[in-house]
Inverse folding.
């Protein structure tokens, strides 16, 4: 059986001569719809990163309003929904919404914390035992991220100074090094080599003994959500947020200044001190202003994030432009 | 709906043998409008996200990132038209190139507007000095701002009669600026990212590949010509 070439079949010849308007319309409409779906869908896939949904955790000490303490700010507290869905926690992923989405993979019980280094007696302690050593208190602190945004966080926890004293340091202890959990099963972001894992941060011991330095186990009177650093995190409100290491499994007192994660990643951009300083810009953006989450415009950034009265004396004689 | 009629000089050997239809129907009806509407979909979704709170806790920053990525992607898509034609012989990519380029300019302009909002143009804390200072002081902003400025003449000369007014040679030379713009866009994105450079790297590689394809094919064709009759056939 021989087939006629397409241009000789009557149907084809007819359609060439008198185009069928209906078929033409359908074809155009099909092409239009396909193009819209392909281009629109493709662009959405590449560019859209929707925010995560907030999930409330159980109360730790109830929601009763308590009087402001000596270190609390009167600034309006950032809504819980925003404080728990807009987080930098690269262990869960680099997008701000990743931590809230992935935090369920973090198991915070059982959890132990190793206390070692320049201490008279090293020990490993269960998180619940460690927590029971201190009465929990509220601290409403401003938090300033190095990226230029800020929040007001109602932490629940205990002063770091109490823990350091309890660790019984030797005379050689000059720095406090903190280490986060290393576990690619619980922290999928650690499969990427975007930073060196585990995350390490450190303070000078006099900074750690300052009454503002705080260990948080809760937020808003509730258990600390995974994305905010459960079950135990550091809070140093006069420094950029990345100093406040999350999900701590080890605290080591050292004689030498430890290498810290962000200062390894980009030493010219993220220094050891990372004190909030409107006069020292990040190489790629000004630090003079910040956006308080929930506000449209920017507000001026305060030296030491507004805690200069409490901490400026720690750095007398230190050039904060060099020691940024 | 305008349908492109092929110019008489353009009729190839394949179409010459066929009977001339009474009304030439474009094979690509619906494609152009589809590109425009498809390109505007992200804008509609961004408005929807702003209403529903899906932009997250820092909507200004989210819009900033999204409009920037959209602009870069559309720019790269517009750059893909010529290599795609060179590789496949398809003509439809060239038909949608202008729409893609203009959409890229639209999102780049939104990107700049969001930057101005970020600098406080809506709440009164805006100072032109802050912006000038930012643009001059920070290479990351300088590069991005330069890319947007360079897109303006390209957008302004994308009207139907622009080629005629400028002359084909000058118009082509001017529009070659787009290669430079895309390079600036990739550098701007790279510098703007704090640590994870995967995405800017991917866009950079794709853009570089598209530019390389042009060079390779140009080279290939000129060698073919040189190896053939010697003289170029094109007038």
């Amino acid at each position: 059986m021989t087939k006629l070439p397409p241009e000789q079949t009557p149907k084809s010849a007819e359609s060439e001569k008198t185009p069928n308007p209906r078929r033409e319309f359908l074809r155009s409409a099909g092409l239009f719809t396909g193009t819209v779906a392909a281009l629109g869908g493709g662009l959405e896939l590449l560019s859209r990163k929707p925010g995560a949904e907030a999930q409330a955790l159980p109360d730790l000490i109830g929601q009763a309003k308590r009087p402001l303490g000596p270190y609390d700010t009167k600034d309006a507290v950032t809504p819980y929904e925003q404080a728990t869905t807009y987080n930098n926690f690269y262990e869960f992923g680099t997008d701000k919404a990743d931590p809230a989405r992935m935090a369920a993979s973090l198991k915070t019980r059982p959890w132990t914390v190793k206390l070692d280094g320049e201490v008279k007696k090293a020990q490993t302690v269960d998180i619940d035992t460690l927590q029971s050593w201190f009465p929990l208190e509220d601290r409403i602190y401003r938090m300033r991220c190095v990226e230029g945004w800020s929040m007001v966080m109602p932490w629940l926890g205990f002063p770091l100074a109490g823990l350091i004293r309890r660790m019984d340091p030797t005379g050689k202890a000059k720095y406090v090094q903190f280490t986060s959990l290393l576990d690619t099963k619980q922290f999928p972001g650690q499969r990427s080599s975007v930073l060196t894992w585990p995350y390490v941060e450190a303070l000078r011991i006099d900074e750690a003994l300052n009454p503002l330095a705080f260990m948080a186990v809760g937020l808003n009177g509730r258990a600390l959500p995974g994305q905010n650093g459960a079950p135990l995190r550091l809070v140093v409100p006069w420094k950029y947020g990345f100093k406040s290491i999350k999900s701590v499994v080890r605290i080591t007192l050292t004689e030498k200044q430890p290498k810290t994660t962000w200062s390894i990643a980009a030493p010219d951009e993220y220094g050891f001190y990372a004190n909030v300083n409107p006069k020292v810009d990040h190489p790629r953006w000004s630090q003079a202003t910040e956006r308080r989450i929930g506000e449209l415009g920017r507000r001026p950034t305060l030296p030491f994030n507004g805690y200069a009265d409490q901490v400026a004396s720690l750095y007398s004689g230190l050039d904060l432009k060099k020691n940024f | 709906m305008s349908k492109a009629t092929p110019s008489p000089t353009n009729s190839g050997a394949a179409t010459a043998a066929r009977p001339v239809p009474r009304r030439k129907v474009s094979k690509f009806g619906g494609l152009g409008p589809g590109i425009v509407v498809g390109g505007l979909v992200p804008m509609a979704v961004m408005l929807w996200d702003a209403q529903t709170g899906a932009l997250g806790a820092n909507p200004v920053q989210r819009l900033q990132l999204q409009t920037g990525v959209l602009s870069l992607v559309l720019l790269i898509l517009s750059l893909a038209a010529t290599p795609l034609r060179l590789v496949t012989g398809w003509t439809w990519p060239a038909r949608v190139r202008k729409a893609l380029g203009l959409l890229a300019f639209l999102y780049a302009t939104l990107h700049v507007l969001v930057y101005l909002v970020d600098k406080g143009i809506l709440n009164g804390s805006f100072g032109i000095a802050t912006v000038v200072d930012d643009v001059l002081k920070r290479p990351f902003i300088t590069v991005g701002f330069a890319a947007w400025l360079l897109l303006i003449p390209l957008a302004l000369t994308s009207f139907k009669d622009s080629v005629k007014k400028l002359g084909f040679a000058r118009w082509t030379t001017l529009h070659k600026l787009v290669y430079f713009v895309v390079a600036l866009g990739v550098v701007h994105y790279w510098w703007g990212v704090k640590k994870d450079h995967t995405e800017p790297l991917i866009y950079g590689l794709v853009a570089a590949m598209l530019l390389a394809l042009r060079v390779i094919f140009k080279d290939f064709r000129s060698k073919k010509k040189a190896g053939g009759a010697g003289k170029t056939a094109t007038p």
The CA atoms of residues 291 and 297 of chain A lie 6 Å apart. Chain A touches chain B through 57 residues (CB under 8 Å). Chain A is about 20% helix and 20% strand. Chain A has one domain: 75-315.
